[in-house]
């Protein structure tokens, strides 16, 4: 019977949360991402590594629906995000996707607590229960004593841990991080990464992390190597 032939990925216990098919991005005659294909199982961790200019940030932006491909598709939990209009993609990002940037990108006029609440407020879910959740997340990353600090009053590591709390408050299905330790010294970076993996473990969030940090890449389940916009096969 046909329906006894089940999906091998399901037999392995993990469904695919992100699938990229024939993904290509060109700027004029410059092709920066070339026919990329890969799939990421739900709950897994994955690093994207490669030299500067190899297309890592472009690839991450396409996967997160921040940017549109020239060709190919990105499926997030089965939804072809290229088929959505801008509102649909914005909703997808707000509800299912977290993003952490190298340069933290906190809002300077908001406190740490208010920054962490922003993704919920954008979904019309501000208020006391969100403030409680935000405080709990900040406590989880060791910032329970910094709730009322503004970004300019926080160290780089503290800003990035605030950004982690913000990225997790919606309990996204998948979190993309672009060189999250790139602006931090080794010791501070390690603390940020410890927090990232601890949150990943307790929420089951899939992580896709662009990094130059071999220690960080070594802690993920899989490493994808990019060179000049293509995936270098594993040797
Ligand atoms: P990485 O993150 O690996 O350093 P990027 O994805 O930022 O690489 O960039 C890959 C290439 O694409 C670079 O050569 C860069 O100059 C080019 N590029 C990126 N964004 C644009 C853009 N908006 N317009 C034109 N070229 C771009
Ligand atoms: Mg980059």
Q: What is the molecular shape?
A: globular
Strand order of the largest sheet: 6-7-8-3-9-10
Q: What is the number of E strands?
A: 10
Low-pLDDT residue spans: 1-11
Main structural class: alpha/beta
Bound molecules: adenosine-5'-diphosphate, magnesium ion
Contiguous helical run count: 8
Short description, anyone?
This protein has 235 residues and is an alpha/beta fold. Helices cover 35% and strands 26% of the residues.
Structural descriptors:
six-stranded mixed beta sheet; 10 strands; globular; binds adenosine-5'-diphosphate; binds magnesium ion
Can you walk me through this structure?
- The protein is 35% helix and 26% strand.
- A six-stranded mixed beta sheet has the order 6-7-8-3-9-10, with helices on both faces. A four-stranded antiparallel beta sheet has the order 2-1-4-5, with helices on one face.
- Helix 4 packs across helix 5 and helix 6 (156-168) runs parallel beside helix 7.
- It has helices spanning 8-11, 56-63, 86-96, 112-122, 128-140, 156-168, 186-203, 214-218; strands spanning 16-27, 30-41, 45-49, 71-76, 79-80, 97-100, 174-178, 206-210, 222-227, 230-232.
- It is of the alpha/beta class and 235 residues long.
- The protein binds adenosine-5'-diphosphate (ADP) and magnesium ion.
- Adenosine-5'-diphosphate (ADP) is lined by residues 27, 30, 32, 50, 52-58.
């Amino acid at each position: 019977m046909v329906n006894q032939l089940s999906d091998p990925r399901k037999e392995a216990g993990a469904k695919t949360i992100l699938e990229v098919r024939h993904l290509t991005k060109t700027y004029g005659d410059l092709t920066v991402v070339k026919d990329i294909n890969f799939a990421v199982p739900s709950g897994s961790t994955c690093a994207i590594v490669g030299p500067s200019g190899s297309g890592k940030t472009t690839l991450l932006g396409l996967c997160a629906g921040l940017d549109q491909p020239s060709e190919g598709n990105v499926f997030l939990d089965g939804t072809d995000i290229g088929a959505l209009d801008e509102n649909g993609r914005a909703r997808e990002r707000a509800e299912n996707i977290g993003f952490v940037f190298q340069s933290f990108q906190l809002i300077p006029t908001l406190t740490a607590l208010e920054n962490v609440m922003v993704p919920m407020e954008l979904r019309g879910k501000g208020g006391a229960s969100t403030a409680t959740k935000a405080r709990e997340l900040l406590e989880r990353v060791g910032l329970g004593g910094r709730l009322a600090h503004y970004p300019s009053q926080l160290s780089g590591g503290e800003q990035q841990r605030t950004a982690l709390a913000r990225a997790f408050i919606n309990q996204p299905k998948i979190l993309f991080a672009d060189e999250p330790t790139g602006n931090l010294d080794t010791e501070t970076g390690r603390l940020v990464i410890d927090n990232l993996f601890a949150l990943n473990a307790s929420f089951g969030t899939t992580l896709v992390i662009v990094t130059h940090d071999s220690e960080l890449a070594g802690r993920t389940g899989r490493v994808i190597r990019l060179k000049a916009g293509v995936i270098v096969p594993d040797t």
